Structure formats: C-alpha cells, structure tokens
C-alpha cells in the first residue's frame, strides 16, 4: 500500500509565524536546512517524518492538526459557492481549488467570507424590496 505524502505547507508556516520564529530559527529547531523548510512551506516537498516528530517533541504540537480535513472542507465550500448563479460562465477546475485551499487557505477563507457577505446583502435587499412593494 502506498503511503500518502503530507503537503501541509500553509499549516507549517502558520505554526512558525504563530511561534514568531524566522525560517532560519524554525529550521534549526526542526533539524532541517533552511531551503528544505522553505520547500515544505511552499508545498514543493512533503512534510518529512523528521519534521512531524520534531513538531511533536520540540513544540508539543498535536501533529494530527497537520492532516486535518481543512483543505477538503475549503474545496467543498468553494465548489458550492461557485455554483451560485453570480459565477455563471466561470468554470474553475477542481485542481485550482485544491491548490488554493492547500497553498493559500487564508485566501480561500476570505473568498468564502466575501460570498457569505454578498449573499446576506442580497437577501437584505430582497427583503427591503418586498417590504417596499418592489419586485
């Protein structure tokens, strides 16, 4: 059975920035080179076993957070949003959504929040139009 590689660069970067470490310091604490850490943070290389073990031992991190279903949820939410008629004619490949969710989860969350605001505003306007007797 093939092992699935763990690409969790955004989460790795989030951990590092939360701890207020530079890439150089974080790489040293994890026992990897700076270029290797950079490649992992940019999802050019999978997160290594060495790094997973170091995150647990050095920082007490629950490493199951690295493999959380956040990416799948973001992709699912974005697919649902893109089915809105406002996006008619805009076909976004699944691979692009997956890349966005894994490499730029903050952007994906902002897109989701923006659409939620758009939908709420649209509903308020529809309510006001109805209250004023407009169609």
Helix content: 55-70%
- Whole-Å distance between the termini? 60 Å
Largest sheet composition: none
pLDDT < 50 stretches: none
Number of helices: 7
Determine the mean pLDDT: 87
Integer count of domains: 2
Give a description of the structure.
This protein is mainly α and 135 residues long. It has 2 domains: 9-67, 434 Repressor (Amino-terminal Domain) (Orthogonal Bundle); 70-131. The chain has helices at 9-18, 23-30, 34-41, 49-59, 70-82, 94-103, 105-131. The longest helix is centred in the C-terminal third of the chain and has 27 residues, at 105-131. The mean pLDDT is 87.
Question: Key features?
Answer:
434 Repressor (Amino-terminal Domain); 135 residues; 2 domains; 64% helix; mainly alpha; elongated
Write the layout of secondary structure elements.
Elements: H1 9-18, H2 23-30, H3 34-41, H4 49-59, H5 70-82, H6 94-103, H7 105-131
Helix pairs in contact: 2-3, 5-6, 5-7, 6-7
Briefly characterize the structure.
The protein has 135 residues and is an all-alpha fold. The protein has seven helices and no strands.
């Amino acid at each position: 059975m093939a092992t699935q590689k763990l690409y969790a660069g955004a989460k790795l970067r989030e951990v590092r920035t939360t701890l207020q470490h530079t890439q150089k310091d974080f790489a040293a604490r994890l026992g990897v080179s700076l270029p290797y850490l950079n490649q992992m943070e940019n999802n050019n290389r999978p997160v290594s076993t060495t790094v997973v073990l170091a995150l647990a031992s050095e920082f007490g991190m629950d490493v199951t957070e690295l493999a959380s279903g956040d990416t799948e949820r973001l992709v699912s939410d974005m697919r649902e949003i893109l089915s809105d008629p406002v996006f008619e004619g805009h076909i976004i490949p699944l691979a692009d959504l997956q890349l966005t969710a894994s490499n730029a989860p903050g952007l994906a969350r902002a897109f989701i929040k923006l659409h939620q605001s758009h939908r709420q505003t649209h509903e308020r306007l529809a309510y006001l139009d109805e209250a004023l007797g407009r169609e």
